[in-house]
Amino acid sequence: MFEPLDPLLHSELRLAIMSLLVSAEEAEFPYIKEQTGATAGNLSVQIDKLSAAGYLEVEKTFKGKRPCTICRITPEGLKAFEDYVKALKSYLQVK
User: Fold this and answer.
1) Tens of pLDDT, residue by residue, the chain (95 residues)
2) CB neighbours of residue 50 within 10 Å
């Protein structure tokens, strides 16, 4: 039968963030914003949700005098993403 889809990852923007970070070791906020086309405010909220769930690690530093937010996927986040993909495949294999 169908495997349940993680509701946290079922959001288009959160899934896009996770997809980017699965293939990259880390990414800075402006890069994620550019790749997803999200507004800064919405992106920030979604990153906070993923971070609160333990799926992302967020590091806030400075580059010179400018703030720099770096996001990394955690082992828990990678497993959740892999489980989501597996569950999605269960829907696609229905005959």
Assistant:
1) 788 899 999 999 999 999 999 999 899 999 999 999 999 999 999 999 999 999 999 999 999 999 999 999 999 999 999 999 999 998 887 65
2) 25
Picking from 56, 55, 82, the residue whose alpha carbon sits closest to that of residue 70 is 56
Neighbours of 95 (CB within 10 A): 2
Q: Are strands 56-63 and 27-28 parallel, antiparallel or unpaired?
A: unpaired
Say what the pTM is.
Answer: 0.91
| Dihedral (Cα; 66, 30, 40, 10), 10-degree rounding | -140
Our measurement of the distance from residue 50's CA atom to the centroid of its chain's CA atoms, rounded to an integer in Å, reads 6
CATH architecture of the domain with range 12-88: Orthogonal Bundle (1.10)
From CA 25, how far away is CA 32, in angstroms rounded? 13
* Residues found in the chain: 95
